[in-house]
Design brief:
CATH topology of the largest domain in chain A: D-Amino Acid Oxidase, Chain A, domain 2
Largest sheet of chain A: 8 strands, mixed
Radius of gyration of chain B: 20 Å
Number of helices of chain A: 10
Largest interface: A-B, 26 and 25 residues
Distance between the termini of chain B: 56 Å
Distance between the termini of chain A: 25 Å
Structural class of chain B: alpha/beta
CATH architecture of chain B: Alpha-Beta Barrel
CATH class of chain B: Alpha Beta
Shape of chain B: globular
Strand order of the largest sheet of chain B: 3-2-1-8-7
Oligomer: heterodimer
Structural class of chain A: alpha/beta
Number of strands of chain A: 17
CATH superfamily of the largest domain in chain A: D-Amino Acid Oxidase, subunit A, domain 2
CATH class of the largest domain in chain A: Alpha Beta
CATH topology of chain B: TIM Barrel
Strand content of chain B: 5-15%
Number of strands of chain B: 8
Number of domains of chain B: 1
Order of helices and strands of chain B: EHEHEHEHEHEHEHEHH
Shape of chain A: elongated
CATH architecture of the largest domain in chain A: 2-Layer Sandwich
Strand order of the largest sheet of chain A: 6-7-5-12-13-14-11-15
Number of helices of chain B: 9
Strand content of chain A: 25-35%
Order of helices and strands of chain A: EHEEHHHEEHEHEEHEHEEEEEHEEEH
């Protein structure tokens, strides 16, 4: 098979590249930047591999396909921590916890004693919680860097160029994985703004992602190790901008403070904002137009769904197998 | 049927557009319920970026009346500038005016509300004020130029239903010609039906539908309940009484003993 061009070196592009190389293809990855960085959504990902928790509001394919993610990332990057995830709510919002339990599976209810045993730094602040034992998390930047190193050492080429997939497709099979950058070519794509923070707070130790339910400000916090935490994330429709709003910062920080007052003394290492690419149903799409395959719409599920989507792209190319998320309505 | 600034609505459901699992589910909720108005919240930080426009376009594509709101505004100035932005984005004079006065109950700041309503009305807006059932405030809003009133059922997002039936009934009786919309606090269709039975003209809700397990089905349930309540009100319901009143006459019944 001839060389396959992949445009976009975020989580979608690299997972597609890895899947194609594993099937014996020769790949070249083209990105407008050299290496990963804050321009890409993947840079700001929480890195929760939490298909069951996502089931609270996501469609069924997210829960099912997302279950492939932890094993895939573990095999390809050794960057996966398998400690489950914990969902808690302040006492006054306990109704939200009951609702979350009803909408999801793969969890068991835990008491305050079990919570304290699992995460001593949550103390006795939360009377009840839900533990999702089979979920995992990873450090997204480490995982992407390792994926990229692995591809390079297996012979993949990386080119820095602001490429137009339509032009590349005139010369051979091209896969457009540019995320929201592809908006001009993919009219029904929309950007959903996400805002997040990286904090350093060595006083607090958490072993697993914790989600705190709140009617207005749901928060997740993912431990990165060495006292570093990722806090996210607002999901804002119809709002965009290059910068985080004061309101979002205020809400994220006060939610963290509610989780453990020691976060009041944390240092803010990074403030991030991105535009997650999504279609109307928040599910990914694979579209094919001759030599051009467009992979997009991973929404907030990049690390969770990219392994499955990458596999589908490989199945399409090598076996002519129609992917589950194939979209033939659009050209 | 009372109209809303000259617009007659095809049904009494005004549906919010926030908090749905996805825009596809949102669109389905509108389709299944036939809701005639979509409320959409704008914030000043929305800006004019293209990414922000994607969602506005989805709202326009619903093909229903758009009622932008000033949700989350805590001051007159904030609400007024949000209203101006909304007029630009959606090319409509309608504005649902919210000036929040208290963070825990999201209770309206009625003083700021009246002031903002006056400013916006003078500027050509058609204001739908989110207010309490207070009759004096309602009267001040009408004086400020509002031709629609939107009293709360209960605090926003609480799902508690109609907290003050007496106050709402008094409001209906006090302003027989003003279109009245129950805005916020409903959790169940039966509560919407009860409001329509009191003679209210429409129901505005969001969370009860968006956060239901099946939002489209819940939207349809609300639309059905609203239409049932509307019919019941039009049919002039019986008055309740303390004693039983047999529906079949007992006089002339055979004695079997």
């Amino acid at each position: 098979m001839n060389e396959i061009i992949i445009i976009g070196a975020g989580v979608a592009g690299l997972c597609v590249a890895r899947n194609l190389m594993d099937r014996g293809a020769k790949v070249t990855v083209v990105d407008r930047f050299e290496g990963a960085g804050p321009h890409a959504c993947s840079w700001w990902a929480g890195g929760m591999l939490a298909p069951f928790c996502e089931g609270e509001s996501a469609e069924e394919p997210v829960v099912r396909l997302g279950q492939e993610a932890a094993d895939w990332w573990a095999a390809k990057t050794q960057a996966v921590e398998r400690c489950g995830s914990l969902v808690v709510s302040p006492t006054r919002d306990r109704a939200d916890l009951a609702r979350f339990a009803r909408r999801t599976r793969g969890h068991r209810e835990v008491t305050v004693d079990e919570i304290t045993a699992m995460e001593p730094d949550l103390g006795t602040r939360f009377a009840k919680g839900l533990f999702f034992e089979d979920e995992a998390h990873l450090a997204p930047r480490t995982a992407l860097a390792r994926l990229r190193e692995g591809l390079a050492s297996d012979g993949a080429a990386f080119i820095q160029e602001d490429a137009n997939p339509d032009i590349y497709a005139q010369h051979g099979l091209t896969i457009d994985c540019r995320g929201y950058q592809a908006k001009r070519q993919i009219n029904d794509l929309r950007g959903v703004k996400g805002e997040m923070l990286v904090l350093s707070c060595p006083e607090v130790t958490l072993s697993r992602p914790v989600r705190m339910l709140h009617p207005r400000v749901p928060l997740y916090i993912v431990p990165r190790g060495d006292g570093v935490f990722m806090l996210g994330a607002t999901m804002v429709e119809g709002r965009a901008g290059k910068h985080v709003t004061a309101r979002a910062l205020l809400e994220l920080l006060s939610a963290a403070y509610a989780l453990n007052p020691a976060f009041g003394e944390a240092e803010v290492l990074e403030i991030g904002v991105d535009s997650r690419p999504a279609f109307a149903d928040n599910l990914p799409r694979i579209r094919r137009d001759g030599n051009l395959i467009r992979v997009n719409g991973l929404y907030r599920h990049g690390f969770l769904l990219a392994p499955a989507v990458g596999r589908m792209v490989a199945d399409l190319i090598f076996d002519n197998k129609r992917p589950e998320v194939m979209d033939e309505t659009a050209t | 049927m009372r109209d809303f600034y000259g617009t007659e609505l095809s049904n009494g459901l005004m549906l919010g557009t926030a908090q749905y699992p996805s825009p596809a589910v949102l669109a389905d909720a509108f389709k299944r319920s036939g809701a005639s108005v979509a409320t959409v919240s704008l914030r000043r930080e929305s800006g004019q970026d293209r990414a922000g426009q994607d969602f506005w376009q989805l709202i326009r594509d619903l093909g229903v009346h758009v009622l932008p709101n000033t949700a989350g505004c805590h001051s007159v100035k904030e609400a007024v500038s949000t209203a101006h932005m909304a007029r630009e984005v959606f090319a409509t004079k309608w504005i649902k005016l919210e000036v929040i006065g208290e963070e825990d109950t999201l209770q309206p700041d009625v003083f700021g509300l009246v002031e903002a309503a006056r400013i916006l009305t003078e500027d050509g807006f058609q204001v739908f004020p989110y207010t309490t059932e207070d009759l004096v405030v309602a009267d001040k809003l009408l004086q400020a130029g509002c031709e629609v009133l939107m009293p709360w059922g209960a605090p926003i997002g609480s799902g508690l239903g109609l907290n003050n039936i007496f106050g709402l009934r008094a409001m209906r009786a006090h302003f027989p010609d003003v279109p009245l919309v129950i805005d916020a606090g409903l959790g169940l269709p039966s509560q919407a039906a009860a409001a329509m039975e009191l003679g209210f003209d429409a129901i505005l809700l969001n969370t009860a539908v968006a956060k239901a397990g099946d939002p489209a089905l819940m939207a349809q349930a609300f639309a059905t309940a609203i239409s049932a309540g509307q019919m019941a009100h039009a049919a002039d319901p019986m008055e309740p009484r303390d004693m039983a009143a047999p529906s079949t006459p007992v006089i002339g019944k055979a004695f079997l003993e």
